[in-house]
Design goal:
- It is a single chain.
- Helices cover about 70% and strands about 5% of the residues.
- The longest helix is centred in the middle third of the chain and has 23 residues.
- It contains nine helices and three strands; from the N terminus they run αβααββαααααα.
- Helix 1 packs across helix 3 and helix 6 packs parallel to helix 8.
- It has a three-stranded antiparallel sheet with strand order 1-3-2.
- It is mostly helical.
- The mean pLDDT is about 90.
Length: about 220
């Protein structure tokens, strides 16, 4: 699925979003060197927007630049899992609660439709990487519906880092489909305005994610 529709965006924003998701989904592997010329050609744009995007991605902890050596995708340190989960277990429930409290009628429809699309997925036929794209789409939708752009920015950043860890172990995880299907109830209780249940399910989802990863380390 398409996570975003960036065609009409400024070039630097489009470059940022595309490169960010390639890093998250490990299309660009941890520690890989990043060739801004090659990226610019692949994206059909000049080097300037790509370089601007890479600067933003450095603040997101997805790339790192070294003088005279160049820019690289950051490594994945599994010890970061606890730090990331410590933040997400506090903020994901808050976002789910606020989304349930504040969602407009239009947002209710969007949440219900997204829940139905996930419920109808034939997970046996869907590539695991594609399932992770659905996972990202759910989280980003909830953050947006919560209506707090500062909370949204923070959660996108840490969910991106968590997803990168998830993708690193994707081939060893037996329950990716279950993890994605958990979103169906979460989306529906948010759409129904059940803030307490949304808070609980979001917390359990984050804790379950950490436990799943730790089980295969």
């Amino acid at each position: 699925m398409d996570l975003d529709s960036p065609v009409a965006m400024p070039l630097a924003e489009r470059a940022y979003m595309v490169i960010r998701d390639r890093l998250i989904m490990l299309d660009i592997q941890p520690n890989d060197p990043i060739d801004d010329d090659a990226l610019a050609k692949a994206l059909g744009m000049g080097r300037t927007p790509v370089r601007e995007a890479l600067k933003r991605l450095e603040s997101d902890r997805l790339v790192v630049s070294y003088p005279r050596r160049g820019t690289f995708a950051t490594g994945v340190d599994i010890s970061d899992l606890a730090h990331i989960s410590e933040i997400r277990v506090q903020l994901e429930p808050l976002a789910a609660r606020r989304a349930a409290e504040l969602a407009t009628r239009t947002a209710h429809t969007e949440l219900e439709e997204l829940a139905s699309r996930i419920a109808q997925l034939d997970v046996g036929q869907v590539d695991r990487t594609e399932l992770m794209r659905w996972d990202l789409a759910v989280h980003r939708t909830i953050y947006r519906v919560a209506g707090n752009p500062h909370l949204e920015d923070v959660l996108i950043r840490y969910n991106n880092l968590a997803t990168r860890i998830f993708c690193l172990f994707l081939d060893r995880l037996p329950t990716v489909d279950q993890h994605v299907r958990e979103h169906v109830e979460l989306l529906r209780v948010i759409a129904a305005g059940d803030a307490d249940r949304a808070d609980y399910l979001a917390r359990e989802h984050v804790l379950g994610f950490e436990q799943t990863i730790r089980a295969v380390i």
